[in-house]
## 1
Amino acid sequence: MPQYPNLYATINDSQLLSEEFARREDEKDALSKLRAEFVIPTKGDLRNKRYGPKDKLLENGEGTSREDDDEESIYLCGNSLGLQPRRTREYVNRYLDTWASKGVFGHFKTLEGGHPPWLDLDDALKQQTARIVGALPSEVVVMETLTANLHLLMSSFYKPTPDRYKIIIEGKAFPSDHYAAQSQLEHYNIPSSALITIAPPSPDDPYLTTEHILSVISQHHASTALVLLPGIQFYSGQYLDIELITRHCHGLGITVGWDLAHAVGNVPLKLHDWNVDFAAWCNYKYMNGGPGVIGGLFVHDTHGKVEKPKVNGDVQHDNDTQLVYRPRLSGWWGSDKSSRFRMENKFVPIPGASGFQLSNPSALDMTSVLASLDVFSLTSMDALRARSLRLTAYLEERLLRYDNKPPPYKIITPANPAERGAQLSILLSPGLLDPVLEYIEDRGVVVDERKPNVLRVAPAPLYNSFWDIHRFITIFQAAVRKAVASQSTTVTPNGAART
Ligand SMILES: *Cc1c(COP(=O)(O)O)cnc(C)c1O
């Protein structure tokens, strides 16, 4: 096994475990200032049973009151729902004011001090989205939601034939991806045995080696139509080698699509250069667009062309001839903007990803995504990644140091920083998850649990700090010690105390 020396491994306990060390790491990093772009809920906010900030409730004589109520919570759950950028409220208010004051004109009129007209918002979002996923602006579009987009993309890219019809996914695929692939097979009356799953070697070790992934693809290549994989696996946090796997598939004549739910806004991507056929993602995890907000998709340049037909090599300019483009399920928003409102029933796809749009997209959603993208524009994915590597290395090193003894948990995310993003998944010894969760949640820690034994902890580089991680570790390890201690005194059914 190759070793991956941790940046913080050589620092002694008396330094590394101190709060001061975390504070200094934050001060050294220029990107730490981006935390101020976000609303960080306080512990009191989280504890209150009614919605809204705690201050408002106390004014009304409601709500609890505990000593640490005003302390910022330790929110390490951006892999599930990113925090709210401060500017989101301002942008959304501007949207509401535009709608209130202009009605339908909000669609077309450029307004002083306003956002682009709603009709052009999708174009405004493309530029910034393209930078985040490493694409040409024409290759991306903000539309629909992730699972819907996977289906739309499969309707165009999954074309089963009697020879090639299998879909390869991974064995621990996010259920929605599994259902999407399975129902595509059902849609074509193909037996479910055509769904090939790449299984991890053991339930306790979800790591998929690249060799294993490639070998399963090779084994089924002659009958496979599509490979659909996650850029970053949601459970283990493993970052797959998108470029290499894509090249391998293409060498075997297989189309490959990527679900980037956990990769977008987390690691720098180069979808264009890696020749990815298609990809889709949501904008509510590391992208901070808001719960269930409109998603995004990528269609490589080579698949987005809209051309006049050629006869014997000559381009036909006759207006009545059918344009040549990749077939897809279509709607009016994918049709040429200049003729969209003529209602002529002639679909003229916009070249590139925008031609895959169906509906008039929610301007409210796009406004929220715009706020989030404007925060990303304050930095670059490369700079964020550099910060993220340090944050996650620090989290890892702190987790590994547990009272000078082996901890009753292990990290199941790859140790190689190149094979993971921000998230570390922690597998706890049996029976610890519930008491640990209860203890840390009571103290304002927000992480994500996967029953029976896994906690996912994701320091988001835009807003999480070394101080957050220090506070997390302090509370988490206290919780683990307490849970272990109470486990060892649990009375077994036959009355004997277990030790
Ligand atoms: C979050 C996530 C989804 C969610 O899909 P929606 O359609 O947005 O509800 C799907 N797949 C993966 C891999 C995810 O991580």
Note: The radius of gyration is 25 Å.
## 2
Amino acid sequence: MPSDPLSWIDVALRDLDARDLRRRLNTHDGAQGPRIAIDGREYTNFGANDYLGLASDPRLAAAVTSAAQEFGWGAGASPLVTGRSVLHEQLEHRLAAFEGTEAALLFNTGFAANSGVIPALVGEGDVVFSDALNHASLIDGCRLSRATVQVYRHNDCEHLNSRLREASGFRRRLIVTDSLFSMDGDLAPLPALCDLAERYECMLHVDEAHATGVFGQRGRGVAEHLGVEDRVPIRVGTLSKALGASGGFVAGSQALIDWLANRARSYVFSTAPPPPLCAAAMAALDIVECEPDMRTILLATAAGLREQLRAAGWNIGPSASQIIPIILGDEQRALAAATTLREHGMWVPPIRPPTVPTGKACLRISLAAGHTPEMLAELLKALASA
Ligand SMILES: *Cc1c(COP(=O)(O)O)cnc(C)c1O
């Protein structure tokens, strides 16, 4: 009998099992929120990026319903063909106004934005400097670009500086970084990165995926929070985390946006997002603009929780945000702790390689505006027994 050419997969999965690295798909019932029903049991949910609780906000659902009645659901084509409706155009204008830039471009996801933007900006003969802890979508964008990729040590501007000094032979230079690192919850040193980008005439692409709607006086992200938004020419955000919807965007100059609409392959060769999704995103932007207290309170609560966790002796690394990892080191410990927390009704996802480097397995607490003081007290109690 001929052997099955896919049989290696069983072997590879068993290997993941043996190393405590196999992921299982969980399915939840009902809406996303601070409480979540998974496999028939209710948990307090510390695993969502729905930081402002907008994913299940009735205002977004109402916007979707009425837009669907007028526009239907599907976009039907890529934006350059016939897929871009007036709702897409309105949302892009709203995003540009929200970000304070000339223009913005809507992608299907943040992943598509990052993996499309980088290859549109650099190619063979160019160089990209990428933070060692950047999100997978930035890493894939670097790989797809065929530019030389130089990975610098996480948040280490000295190291980046030394690499930049030796990079004058390349045609174009680009620095890419998360603004709020998705696993460690720490912030990129954006003012120093802006200094370096300006000194070495380097493009700078900052991914605000976890910071849009959370950081900054107007919710624009860490660049606004650190006072450098005018010095970051390529700003990426997502509508799928704090904004509770779905989709990614790039904000910048009109020329940048025009170029990306021509050359970002994940934009050009992908069907536009459903028009009602744009209506949901605009409803979310209204809320973020009108209710700044949500983000202020969330960040204050996060600061309090970080303090309590540190006082209780947990290693939360350099977290400075609503993303708080409890670093446990090996995969088995992280899995065992997550299981104990589940028994106490707390859903806190264990994060293992390849999402984090080997030896840095953790529990990732993702704090949201809807978490009550009682929920946090229960979390601390459950952790004490884990
Ligand atoms: C989640 C995430 C993305 C991808 O955004 P999606 O809209 O979920 O595709 C990009 N960058 C970072 C840093 C992220 O954490």
Note: The pocket of pyridoxal-5'-phosphate is lined by residues 109-111, 114, 135, 137, 178, 182, 207, 209-210, 238, 240, 248 (CB under 6 Å).
